[in-house]
Amino acid sequence: MIDIRYVKQEGTFLVRNRGDGPDSSGSVQKLLGARLHVDESDNIDGLVPATDMRDKKGKVRSGFVEANRLSAKQQLKIFYLDVGQGDATLIEAEGAIVVIDGGPNRGFHDDLIKRLKKLRQADLDAGLPARQRLRINAIVVTHFDLDHYAGLIKVLETKDFEIGRIYHNGLPRYSNTAGKDLNLGDLVNHVDGTRSISADLGDIASARQLLSSGDLITAKGNDNKFAKFLRAAVAAFDDDRLGSMKRLVRRNTAGKPAVLPDTGPDLSVEILGPVTTKESGAIRLPVFPDPHSVSKSNPNPSPSESHTINGNSVVLRLVYDKTTFLFGGDLNQPAQRYIAKRYRSLAPFSADVNKACHHGSSDFDLAYLKAVAPDATVFSSGDNGSHDHPLPDAMGTAAKHSHGNFPLVFSTELARETGSDGIKFGHINARSNGNLIVMAQKKEKPSLKKTWHSFRLPFAGPFAEDHSEN
Predict the structure, then answer these.
(1) What is the pLDDT of residues 64-92, one digit of tens each?
(2) What total number of domains does the chain contain?
(3) Exposed, middle or buried: residue 381 (CB in 10 Å: 0-12, 13-18, 19+)?
């Protein structure tokens, strides 16, 4: 009888023969969370027969694994995918798949298709019917910049995917012809000198209203890119492949944050931002200037479209038992300072792993980074020469204000593989069993025995025994 099991301990190997060790010929490293098909009825001296999932050539490795290293429950896996200049994250846990952003192109869609094909084959190998669709519990668009959402249009159009909900920050991207402030909404100047903007996108009904308003049409009479996203979402809803759409905001910053529903029994996804300007009444969001325009003679310059959309990114903190992961979209310096004022403390933003904001831009606030204080930071960026992300000060400051003597800084660009057929996009892995986190990226030249560079958090250094105190 075949049972589906998941690796729950780091340092697990699939060995060729009973009695073999990790260094034996044919032994294969298996990351925490890896799926295996085992026969638990054939347990001899704690070892059970096991096969792993098929590789891209269709090959399956068989051998033996220690039964006490396996769990019937799926462990947490986070894939920080390389989509070029953009963000895309795939999160898998027991009973849930969550997507945060989808990059600028169809690369993320193609990765999901590959994932679905692999899972279908694994279902058949386990004697189960192959799933027809990949169910995604939630897709979160942190904000509507093309490098975060354009790649999701193809996902919404593909009938192989079923989505529970789409979450977003409520700020549409109006066309230049719509006459909207900052091309985002309606700006209001308040008597206390502050300014706020409307958040006009809510549910599917409001998406339909925006599409019919004519405010998303370009000067040439075509849908803008944001309209194409909304049309794909509405079509998926009408096809019963999308459950709903919802705006996410944080109004009252005191007390426990709300969490996303339907993310499985083990994963809690806290909603930390964007933070509204008022705790009650109509939902309005703050506007932000370009901090480079702020000076002593002009302390309150005009708000910036890009800084307002970026600064109101959806901010999520994933809690998986004792481990935490932060996702801040493209938060910038003025937004991080605003958040610090609205929260009594930045303690809710602390995390073991931080997905760096805005791909490693210099536009960050030091106090915010110090509050996050992770063990590892992941920078997601590409080769867009107009940005040059990640920038040296962002990487250096992230490392300096991380925990431990050996903080980890990962880059999706550095994780790429090169070969005779050119550059292959890579990705960064975070794996957790609830008590520990293992970060991993593929070796530049993988061997059969060891495919990944893996690091347990907090990382104690490559020669940990030499750094221990007597």
Answers:
(1) 999 999 999 999 999 999 888 889 999 99
(2) 2
(3) buried
